[in-house]
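Lecture 7, part B: from sequences to assemblies.

Below are the input chains for today's worked example.
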Amino acid sequence: MLHTIPQSLGPVERMIVPPGSARRGKLLLVAATVLLFGVLLAQITDVAGVTSFGFVSWRPLLSGYIIWAGALCAAQVMIRGEAGQRAAFVLPAVLFTVAMVVFPTVFGLYIAFTDWNLSAVAGRRFNGLDNLRTLFADRYFWNALLNMVYYVLSVLVQYAIAFGLALLLNAEIKARKFFRVAFLLPLMLSPVAVSWMIGKSLMEYRFGPAATLARHLGWDNPAFFSTPWLARSSIIAMDAWVSIPFMMILLLAGLQALPSEIKEAAKVDGASGWQSFKEITFPLMLPVSITVIILRVIFQLKLADIVINVTAGGPGGATDTVSSFIFREYRDRSNVGYGTMLAEFYLVIIIIFVALILKGASRWMQRDN
Amino acid sequence: MKVNDFERMMAIGLSRRAILKTGASLGAVAAAGSVLGPFGAVYAQDASLRSQILQVPGVGKGSPTDADWQKVGEMCLEATKKNVKQGEFAGVELSFMGLNNQNLHNVLFRGFLKPWEEYTGAKITWIDLAQADYNPRLQQAIATGTVDFDILEMGAPFEGDVCGKGLASEVPDWVKAQIDMDDYVDYLKAPVGTWDGKTYRISVDGDCHNFNYRTDYFADADLAKAWKDEGHEGEWGVPKTWQKVQEVTKFLKGKSIGGMEAVGYLDAPKAWGGFGFYFLGSRATAYAKHPDDKAWLFDVDTMKPRINNPAWVRAIQDVIDALPSEAGDQLNADPGTTAFQQFLAGTGSMVSWWGDVGASARTSDSSVVGDTIGFDILPGSDDVYNSKTGQWDKLASGPNHAPNMAYLGWGVYVMARVDSDEKRKKAAWSAAAHLGGKDLALWTAAYPSGFQCYRKSQFDIKEWVSAGYDEAFISSYLASQLNSYNHPNAAIEPRIPGIFQYYSVAEDELAKIFAGQATAQAGADAIAAAWEKITDQLGRDKQIALYKASLGA
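Predicted structure of the full complex, as structure tokens:
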């Protein structure tokens, strides 16, 4: 007896598109599209003063988009049957991403090329490459970018500490479960809370316990945020305290997934602990390590909250980050056009930087293999 | 009425409203010369109500709580009742945007307005903002046409942005009468609060920086002896000029008082969302504000910044010179730190601040300095820079004083969007008038609220003494404010759009100067260049016109 599956049958029986359904679907889609563009046109002419519909916001266009998105999904099913059903599963996510990510990014790009200060009489004006020129001449931006180099380099130190802690928690030590939870606690805290609890309380110059301890240890002037390198190091330390548990937990998961046989074999062959780590554990952990470092670098590039709360970028810009500088440009100066240019330019830098890291890591891994 | 009597009446079921109603009725009879005589008078006088509210919770009895704010709000409701019937605003919902700094401002307004809501039937929803978020939130609402609030707590510097764009509702005459607007101190009368001749603002605060100092420092015999031994000129005492402030600050370095490290003046070099610039301004006005010239921040006809003229550069240099003699981490101190974590917590002997320092000294749980502080107008200068001649002038009248009217006080504004609905409009103005009431003002000046005196009626020393304030302390405190408000050479802040953008950019440059990355002159030149760019971006002609208007030029 032959047990064959006919080619024409799939895991789900194909839906047959009833006659006329495709035509109705196309009609629906055309109607929704006309509606969408009609509302768009009405809103644009209203804003331009050509018509006077009296729109108070862009909400009608949003409603038009939602209706069009619903019609698009329905039309897919009506026109393409089962294939349309499959598309209808994906389309909401795609349309949501377009609305919430793609559109704002593209619109932001337009804003980035305008002179738009919220207090300006003239309102928003296209100003070509002026914002870009200002950016290239902006000492505050380049200073903040240089600081980001230091902050990103500190990720390597954080990684080393996190790896050490992960190894410790992976070993057979007493109260291992307790330490696993305890070491995770900083990760659960908001960086803003950390800023206040540590930066503005524990490290407070007059009554902070850390300052008091430092005085007992012979440091007369325990001002953690008054000289550039000390302030930068203090910020890095606070940020590390929150972030190391994140790296540690991922590395610990990686360590627990390693096959124990290889390490046991190395032990039988007389490898020392260091040799076992250097030749077996570390190389095997490389894929996890690269992932952890890249994720942390991406998070680090967005560092702002602790800096804003504790030092406001000082002393003299020593702890400033690109994000906190953009925040100031927006928040304190209402300089939307230039602030958006900064954000878009930084986005491009981040994309290039992360792409290069990924490429480099990929090559390194291949060479290693 | 004593607070305990008041509480007892509460316990037997009398509502606060009933008590006040009874008091008012008895008062009316008494005023008409009835046989009730002195008994009626106890309840009748406004003075009685004013002394009652000052007992809530009582000076020296810790920080007021929400229950106290509600109690005071209820006690001050009579003025509202004269213009609004009970339940008149049932169904009206209003949105109120304001600050929540130090858990004050809106946090108190909620309590004050709760009895008003109960009486009128209106409901208020709240938009609370931190100081630093206030400006961007307001600017975004203005620029994008998304004003989503009906009542707004706002400072006069923003009037150019709001009133100039037709977003505010004009104060109705009945409100002016209810709050007794003529009682405002002179500098808060028009043109402040007005735009094109129309009044838009109910003041709830008056602003100036005064000079707060520790009396125990300047009465200390050991310090006096050391001062003499080191050959300083004059007697050891409270500095009256910035030159002396510098000298005292450097002198105190390395000294101790009562076994604690002695510290002189407290500068605030760390950025504070633009507001930190006021503190350099307080050091600079005596140098930069010439009695013959209303302008001190920009040239009137061109908006050319004066920030890099010799007067401002001297003020910046003073900070650079003083910082090594101040507390060890002074470079990381913002104004919130200097006032609340340093001065009120016992560190430092001199600080310039708004009236909050004095109001908190004896009424805040976090203050340890109590009555050991004294007050004065900001120090003067032996000479003042004359921008017109480019020379330093020595005035025949002595040191030049120029109190910094920093921020011009908070006000309550009603948005024009309520104008189309008479009921909403009346409700919004009634709520605003309740907060701007004459009696409530006395309480907000006496207790931590974020507000200081702004009415002439608030300067009656007897009322404060009866509330429990030490006479010498409160006389000194009130005199420092009144003498600042009435000073003929007061430095009035320009009410121009985007003023905080200028301040914010300056803070960034000043941070670099104070960290030693630029000289005072080079940094000031950089600020001036950045200010010129902002003026061009905002529209120079418009800025010039508004600046002139704000100076009354």
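Note for the exam: The CA atoms of residues 118 and 334 of chain A lie 5 Å apart. Keep this in mind when comparing with the next example.
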